[in-house]
Automatic annotation (TrEMBL):
Keywords: Oxidoreductase. This is Putative F420-dependent oxidoreductase. InterPro entries: F420-G6PD/mer, Luciferase-like_dom, Luciferase-like_sf. One of its GO terms (molecular function) is oxidoreductase activity, acting on paired donors, with incorporation or reduction of molecular oxygen. It comes from Nonomuraea soli. Residues 10-293 form the Luciferase-like domain. SUPFAM superfamilies: Bacterial luciferase-like. The keyword Oxidoreductase applies. Pfam families: Bac_luciferase. The lineage of its organism: Bacteria, Bacillati, Actinomycetota, Actinomycetes, Streptosporangiales. Transmembrane segments: none annotated.
Amino acid sequence: MRITYGPWGESLEELTSAARAAEEAGAELIWVPELHRSATVTAAAVASATTRAGVGTAIALAFTRSPMITALEALDLDELTGGRFVLGLGSGARRLNENWHNARWDKPLAQLRETVEVIRTIVAASHTGQPLEYEGEWQRLSVRGFRRPYQPVRTEIPIYLAAVGPQLTRMAARIADGWISHELCSPAYLREHVLPNLAGRRDGFDVVVSGCCSIDRDPALARERASGVLAFYASVATYKDFFAFHGLADEHARMVEAFRAGRKAEVPGHMVDPLVLTGTPDQVAERIAAYEGFADTIKLTPAVYGNSPAQIRENQARLITLIRELTA
């Protein structure tokens, strides 16, 4: 199982320093998200700070850029990394697309499939001068007389898709080079819910599970500092089935209700335990080992929500030290 990492930083300088430290510790790929920063700009910063580890977006929003811009950014990042780039895409939620980005979000499966097809068309042939054509229900491309005057490092850049629901997970197995889990994904959920929907995956397909970590010598403090992650994600009503799978439907419903009412929701400890990797370094190492045989790659990240920069910094340092021990 490959060990990879999603760094945190209060500044881009700190984030890229953490990426470099994780690479030196043995992380094989550095992932960057898209929420408070642009995924592609952050990926470019990480690319310049690293020399061996892959650089991937986990995830870039698929519908808030045109497929042409996404493809050109992917080609630029692949050049900047010398062929180390992985394009991770996700549909995002309707509210995020429509209210934050004024982007269309209607039939996300078909829209995402066509987006991937257009990106691959551009990556494969934009340097040849031949017409770039695509006609779908959601995406249309008609480019003539265009030739990107740079030889690409690769004409096929790996595209991974993030998915929670079964339909999108099955589509990822059919059309993508890898699947990226939600930030919360227990071994049981991966084994019983995800892998059956990835049964038809292509050769070389990469199953990437996310492991959000909170490490402290005091397990109770580690659990407490992980509660903000649960509070953040459990406020989203569309994750109902995910929490129900873990026997947490009632807790999830109460947290959604509190969020809608503008109240702060209390996170019970039993809600944290199955979904966030918490405890001492040895305990977290054991939790990571539970994914062996089910995931090809694990993406480790420090618990961020609800914690101060100093607390996140301490947790990140412990996590990078643990990566060094796991990869030694």
